[in-house]
Amino acid sequence: MTTTILSIGLVLIATLIGACGALFLKYGAERLTRKNKLTFFNSRLLVGVFFYGLSSVFFLYALKGGELSVLYPITSLSYVWISLLSIKMLGEKMNFFKWLGIAAILVGVTLIGFGS
Questions:
Q1: Cβ distance 14 to 55 under 8 Å?
Q2: Can you give the three-state secondary structure of the chain, one letter per residue?
Q3: Gap between the Cα atoms of 69 and 77, Å rounded
Q4: Each residue of 57-116: pLDDT tens digit?
């Protein structure tokens, strides 16, 4: 079985949606308190869980049209999306080693793509 471009595209979309889910989980986690158990069901946490679920649906459809050994490593791009979103939305700082890690992920995903 060969991996289709559509499957790769679906995985890329899934990783971006999953990264948005993680961002909403972060926003929702900031509202959690020990005193009120209902804070666990705040809207930002629920949106984060929804995005994670939606990401899984895209990934499932991607798996129908491709090899797991090619598609699964592409999910590591979610680390790249998270890093970029954290800089933009959360004001987090990146250092040399974080950028080096992102570069290593991009090189690894590219090499896997060439190997299929």
A1: yes
A2: CCCCHHHHHHHHHHHHHHHHHHHHHHHHHCCCCCCCHHHHHCHHHHHHHHHHHHHHHHHHHHHHCCCHHHHHHHCCHHHHHHHHHHHHHHCCCCCHHHHHHHHHHHHHHHHHHHCC
A3: 15
A4: 999 999 998 899 899 999 999 999 999 999 999 999 999 999 999 999 999 998 987 766
